[in-house]
Amino acid sequence: MTTDEIESVHVEENMTSEAESEGRFISRKNLDFHCKSRNIHRRPNAGDGLWLCTLIPLCLLINCWTHPKSSSLLYKVCSFISFGLFLQSVDILVKLSCRKVNIFINALTKVIPGITSSLLIWYLLNIKIILSFACGIPSSLFFNFIYLYILKRFSQSFTLGEATIVTQGLTIFLFGASVKFASCLHEPPMSKMAEMSAILSVSLLGVLLLIFLVHSISFCRKPIIFSLLLILWILLSGFTPVTDPFPAILVGMFIFLDVGRVSVILIYAGIAGVTGAFVAWKISKKSSTSVSLRKVFHIVIVIVYIIGILFQCTMLFLASGFVLALFIIF
């Protein structure tokens, strides 16, 4: 074959592949097009990680299946809601990959995942049908809105899969924490883990409210106003009557009336001090940090969690929540 013939063959092959791609109802090209048209800019140099949308539902459902007696009713409800959120994730991703979606089908498929999870809650958990639908459908619709909002507002911060797992976690947390907060106001929890869970729910709900206010109202971003909001968050976290006695008193008694917990806190303080000194030393040297050196911090976190899991699991749970709250705020 001559050079011209070879080039013509390549051109024909390219035209054929493009025609096939354009003819597909679901394709990567459609996904890229719809993301750009919706002003969604995914994290660069990374795959979409669509498999991530299965992680939270699998974790919750498998745990419910293997530990049905120890799983609370709220945990089971959240598990079925997570399944609905998984279906909602698939629905959104399929629509983004489709060449065109009918308006009626688009509206119908938005509520099908919520209806599915609601029916599962009603049938398998014997909860009233109205309450079941009040749990399932709003959660799915909220997820649908927040997922696209996060992708648009946090440009190049998430892949499609990463955004699903973040939004699923946020939706399930908001539902579970809100229900727990309301139930604890009616009847304070009895077990230590339930008490710590209630305290963390209030604290993290307060953090989300603080984020919402700062994000929505520019006036709240002023240092004085933000400081007042921060003080208000601390007071609400410490003195909202979700436990008996108040959370601040209960946490103080929980930590300082046990020698083992005090010892673990001292160990954590020592680790934090050494890590802080190391960071200060690196900053003073003004030298770049290698990847292998950064792994030291991963090792430190692993040590912290191993100590907590072995000796003070409940305190580790409590401390992790508070550290997360402080990390988000500061």
TrEMBL record:
InterPro entries named among the record's database cross-references: Polypren_kinase
A GO BP term here is: dolichyl monophosphate biosynthetic process
Q: State if Transport is listed as a keyword.
A: no
Q: What class of enzyme is it?
A: transferase
State the family named in the UniProt similarity comment for this chain. Answer: Belongs to the polyprenol kinase family.
* EC numbers on record: 2.7.1.108
Look up and give the membrane topology term. Answer: Multi-pass membrane protein
Q: What is this protein called?
A: dolichol kinase
Asked whether the UniProt record includes Iron-sulfur among its keywords, one would answer no
GO CC annotation = endoplasmic reticulum membrane
Compartments reported by the entry: Endoplasmic reticulum membrane
PANTHER family for this protein: DOLICHOL KINASE, TRANSMEMBRANE PROTEIN 15-RELATED
Organism name:
Phlebotomus papatasi
Key words of the record: Endoplasmic reticulum, Kinase, Membrane, Transferase, Transmembrane, Transmembrane helix
Q: Which GO terms describe its molecular function?
A: dolichol kinase activity
Q: What is its main location?
A: endoplasmic reticulum
